[in-house]
Each structure stands twice: as structure tokens, then as C-alpha cells.
Design goal:
The protein is of the alpha/beta class and 547 residues long. The protein folds into three domains: 51-211, ANL, N-terminal domain (Rossmann fold, 3-Layer(aba) Sandwich), CATH 3.40.50.12780; 282-444, Rossmann fold, CATH 3.40.50; 454-546, GMP Synthetase, Chain A, domain 3. Helix content is 29%, strand content 25%. It is built from 17 helices and 27 strands. The chain has a nine-stranded mixed beta sheet. An eight-stranded mixed beta sheet has the order 7-6-5-3-4-8-9-20. Helix 2 packs across helix 3 and helix 4 (106-116) crosses helix 5. The longest helix is centred in the N-terminal third of the chain and has 17 residues, at 48-64. The chain starts with 22 loop residues before the first helix and ends with a helix. Residues 460-534 form the AMP-binding enzyme C-terminal domain. Its EC number is 6.2.1.44. It comes from Nitratireductor indicus C115. Keywords: Fatty acid metabolism, Ligase, Lipid metabolism.
């Protein structure tokens, strides 16, 4: 067999190959746009040169305290500048960034600190009380650094907590060397970040990201969110959630501006959009509702079009039309923690604008097609690993394959093996594939309702509920039934000042759905949500069990 001529004397070398990493994007931005504003936080702002220098000094200080390859640095921070600095400074040491959900309780925090073997903890004083309790429960004894936010608002929901660390964040950064020789990863497969799943059925799993995936997400986000040069991004999405969908690394690619937002409030969002010329933001549908339902005295006018990237269930048509009137263009995304956040986008086609209302709504309800950085996306029978027909009706499990799928679950070989069975990442989401290759979710596998042998999609029922003018939020789960096995039960949160009866809600659903799919009962209550605005179905199921 003859030698392949394209493998002769054409080896990798420092001149033609480096590991992919998002860290070089900030370095480039600091050189190309040194005076451009990188971060705005309240009355303060810093340019790219300063952002870069502070990230290096953070890396230097961490390195001086022994942080190196494979060491975990845990942060419990709001959407503030130190969170952005940590996304660069921590991996510059070859360490791994672990971002804690700021709404977790002490036992879960303690579990994560121990499981991640945290060496350093950076904690905002807003969360010092729960962190203090967690550290008392945990076995690890990390270096604790306090962050005292100078822009902490006077109308904060509660006062700052006590200092629990041995050093202040600003003092820690100041101790670093701006000339520190920071490190590229040895291999692009090296870990860059650790994110834990919600853990609603036992201890959460630690999802590990690598430098390659984070870098590719930066490029993919720039394309799919249409981040042009000088984009201004408002931080309504928590940066702890899938590393803020990788946007802390993304903005540097085109020299965009991060506008930090500590609390998601209508007035603060409108002020930021109007005062700073915000062009992009991300969030769950609850953020849209907050904007649309704000009192008139909190709203501000703006001339630019603002792109709103949203994931989770597709927003109701009434919300989408309201957002359009308010000057927002909504892009529907879909993904999981295990896919670095959104990996699927509803690529809107111009010809769909010519459809009638029902036609457009049916297209908007789809999750869409794969990100450019994802290798493949399909719907399969999880038992046979055979693709389902592309008929828009046959339900299977949504599966992913590509460079923006996690490395695996930290210290959990069994769960990792199950997740990657057959060479695909099993999402646990049930959906269909349409003839044009667009996927549409029908439910989580655990949320599908099987009544009399028929599958009922809770998403389909919820979509019908949202079409009722009085419904602000809803969640549909299964209730045990002696005759049918399971029947749907709806939890409904009404809009302020609006009223509806159980009979009216059920009749409304029956006008839109087959009767067997309609909720057999309706409970009016506040809908429990996660810190990112997603409805907590497991809590609704617990409520049903207690009835």
C-alpha cells in the first residue's frame, strides 16, 4: 500500500496548530479594541485592556495560591464583573471554573464543593450566609474570598451578609502580577468548566465542558445570535447557568459590551436597553412577561431592535406578538446543560412570514435545527437506536452528537456511559422530526402522560392553556387514575387582575384539543420556577401526590 503523500512531512507544529480555547478571544479583543467598553456595571465601566489585565492578575493570584491544572475554583456570584473575570482568569491557570446556582441551599452547595474538590471559593456577600453554612457542612477547606459589590443597590432585596473569607476579592486581584505568564490548555480536550444539573431526583451530576467546545460555542453564538461588531449584551440570563450559554466568552469575539444586571427587574432592564443601547439579551419566557407586564412608568422607549434569545418551551403567540410590538425580535433556541446550553436554533425562513397566523405559530413552536458547531441532531427510538420517520408525528428521543456535547459527568462513569449509549448523547427529551429536518419537542420522557394507552404531551396541553387570555403561567403533569392509568392535571397562575374558573379553563382546552388530552382538573396557584425561570415540574408532581 503506497504512502499517503498528505501525511508525509506535514506534522502539527507550533506554527500551524494550537489547541482551541476561548481565552485567546479576550486577548485579541484587548489588543484590537483596548479602549472599547467591555463591561458596564451600574455607574462603573471598564475597557477591554483593563478587563484583560484584571483577568491575568486574577490568574496570577490563583496560581500563587496553588491553583493549577485540574484544580476547581468555585464561584457563587451574581451577574457582576468578577464572574466575567473568573471565566477567563480561572482557566488561564489550567484550572476549572465551577459556577454555583445562587439559589441553592446549603446541603446541595456542600455536596458540590466536596464532589468538585474545590480549592478556592469566591462568594458574593449577598450569599455569604448560605455559603458559611455550606462550608461548615463540607469536608473540603478551600481558600474563601469575599466579593463586596460597590454597585450593590440601595433597594436590594436584603442587606449584604457578613464577610466569611480570609481576603477581599479586590485585594486578591491586586496581589496578582499583570505580567503573569498565563497558560493555554495542554490539550483542547482539557476541562474548562463544571456545571451541575438540577438534581431533582437525587444528587446532581457534574457536567464537564472542555476548551474546544467553549471556543466553538463562542463562534456559533456569534453566528446564531447575530452578534455583529459592537453588540451590547444585557445579562438577564444567569451566568451560572451553563456558563451563561457560553456568552461570557462569546462577546470578546466581536468586541461586544457586557451590561451586568444583578437582579432581573423590569425598570432596570428598560433603563439598560435605553441608556446603553442594548442589542441582545437571553432568558426564559418569564423575562419576556416581566418586560411586557411592567407598569407604564417603568417602561422606556428605544430606537434599536433588540434580539431576545429564549429557550425552554416556545413562548405563546400572544407573548411573541407583544414582544414584536415592543421592539424585540425573538429567536427560539433549545439545548441542555450537557450541550453547553443552546445547540439547536429555530432558523426562521422568510417564506414563513407569508403564512397565516396558525401556520406561523406552528413553525415557531419548533425547536429547530442544529447549531453550526453541532455535528448531528436526530430523533431515535432509544431502544433500537433507529431514527424515527420524519413525519412530524412519530415520537422518539432527541439525540445529539458533536463537539459541543459535554466530556461527561464528573466521577460518574455509569451515568456517562448511559448518556452516551450507542454513540449519541441521550437528551431525555421526547420529540418528533418534521419532513424538513426541524425537530419539535413533545415532552421530557418523565413528563409524558400516558392515558388509556395514549401518549399526551404536556407541552401540547400547556400551549392550549396559554392561549386563554387570563393565563399567565401553567404546568401540566400526570395524576394517577384507576381507570385510565394517568390523566392530565393543570396548575394555572392567572394574570394580575384577571379571573377564570376551572370549568372555563377546561372548556377552553376542549375547544382546541381532543377531549382525552384536556386536563380533568385545574388548580389555581403560583407556579414554582427555577432560578432561570423554568417551571419545576417535579414540584408540581409532588403537589399532585399530596392531594
Amino acid at each position: 500500500m503506497s504512502e499517503n503523500i498528505y501525511e508525509r512531512d506535514l506534522d502539527k507544529n507550533p506554527a500551524n496548530y494550537q489547541a482551541l480555547t476561548p481565552l485567546v478571544l479576550l486577548e485579541r479583543a484587548a489588543k484590537v479594541f483596548p479602549e472599547r467598553i467591555a463591561i458596564i456595571h451600574g455607574e462603573a465601566s471598564v475597557n477591554y485592556a483593563t478587563f484583560w489585565e484584571r483577568s491575568i492578575k486574577l490568574a496570577s493570584a490563583l496560581s500563587a495560591h496553588g491553583i493549577g491544572k485540574g484544580d476547581t475554583v468555585t464561584v457563587m456570584l451574581s451577574n457582576t464583573p468578577p464572574m466575567l473575570e473568573a471565566h477567563h482568569g480561572v482557566p488561564m491557570t489550567k484550572g476549572v471554573l465551577h459556577s454555583l446556582n445562587t439559589r441553592l441551599d446549603a446541603p446541595i452547595i456542600a455536596f458540590q464543593l466536596d464532589h468538585a474538590e474545590s480549592k478556592v471559593v469566591i462568594v458574593d456577600r449577598e450569599f455569604s450566609s448560605v455559603m458559611k453554612e455550606a462550608l461548615e457542612l463540607a469536608s473540603v477547606k478551600p481558600l474563601v474570598i469575599d466579593y463586596d459589590d460597590p454597585e450593590y443597590a440601595q433597594d436590594a432585596p436584603h442587606p449584604k451578609g457578613e464577610r466569611i473569607g480570609s481576603i477581599d476579592y479586590e485585594a486578591f486581584v491586586s496581589s496578582g502580577d499583570a505580567g503573569f505568564a498565563w497558560s493555554l490548555p495542554d490539550d483542547e480536550w482539557d476541562a474548562i468548566a463544571l456545571n451541575y444539573t438540577s438534581g431533582t431526583t437525587g444528587n446532581p451530576k457534574g457536567v464537564v465542558y472542555h476548551h474546544r467546545g467553549a471556543a466553538l460555542m463562542a463562534y456559533a453564538n456569534t453566528v446564531h445570535a447575530a452578534l455583529g461588531s459592537g453588540a451590547v449584551y444585557l445579562w438577564t440570563l444567569p451566568m451560572f447557568h451553563c456558563n451563561g450559554w457560553c456568552f461570557p466568552w462569546t462577546l470578546a469575539l466581536t468586541g461586544g459590551t457586557h451590561v451586568c444586571l444583578r437582579w432581573v427587574r423590569a425598570k432596570a432592564m428598560y433603563d439598560a436597553i435605553a441608556d446603553h443601547g442594548v442589542t441582545h439579551l437571553c432568558g426564559a419566557p418569564i423575562v419576556m412577561s416581566t418586560l411586557l407586564n411592567a407598569p407604564d412608568d417603568q417602561k422606556r422607549g428605544f430606537t434599536q431592535t433588540v434580539t431576545f434569545n429564549t429557550a425552554a418551551a416556545p413562548p405563546p403567540e400572544t407573548v411573541l406578538s407583544g414582544m414584536a410590538r415592543a421592539g424585540f425580535v425573538v429567536t427560539h433556541l433549545y439545548g441542555l446543560t450537557e450541550t453547553y446550553g443552546p445547540a439547536v436554533v429555530n432558523e426562521w425562513k422568510a417564506e414563513w412570514d407569508e403564512l397565516d397566523d396558525a401556520g406561523r405559530a406552528s413553525r415557531k413552536a419548533r425547536q429547530g435545527v442544529r447549531y453550526a458547531a453541532l455535528d448531528d441532531l436526530t430523533v431515535m427510538d432509544p431502544e433500537t437506536m433507529v431514527e424515527t420517520p420524519r413525519d412530524g408525528e412519530t415520537i422518539g428521543e432527541v439525540m445529539f452528537r458533536g463537539n459541543i456535547v459535554m466530556k461527561g459527568y464528573l466521577k460518574n462513569k455509569v451515568a456517562t456511559g448511559e448518556a452516551f449509549a450507542g454513540g449519541w448523547f441521550h437528551s431525555g427529551d421526547l420529540g418528533v422530526m418534521h419532513p424538513d429536518g426541524y425537530i419539535q419537542l413533545k415532552d421530557r420522557s418523565k413528563d409524558i402522560i400516558i392515558s388509556g394507552g395514549e401518549n399526551i404531551s404536556s407541552i401540547e396541553v400547556e400551549d392550549a392553556l396559554y392561549k386563554h387570555p387570563a393565563v399567565a403561567a401553567c404546568g401540566v403533569v400526570a395524576k394517577s387514575d384507576e381507570r385510565w392509568g394517568e390523566t392530565p392535571i393543570a396548575f394555572v397562575e392567572l394574570k394580575e387582575g384577571r379571573q377564570a374558573t376551572e370549568e372555563e379553563i377546561i372548556a377552553h382546552c376542549r375547544s382546541l384539543l381532543a377531549h382525552f388530552k384536556c386536563p380533568k382538573s385545574v388548580i389555581f396557584s403560583e407556579i414554582p420556577r427555577t432560578s432561570t425561570g423554568k417551571i419545576q415540574k417535579f414540584r408540581l408532581r409532588d403537589l399532585v401526590k399530596s392531594l
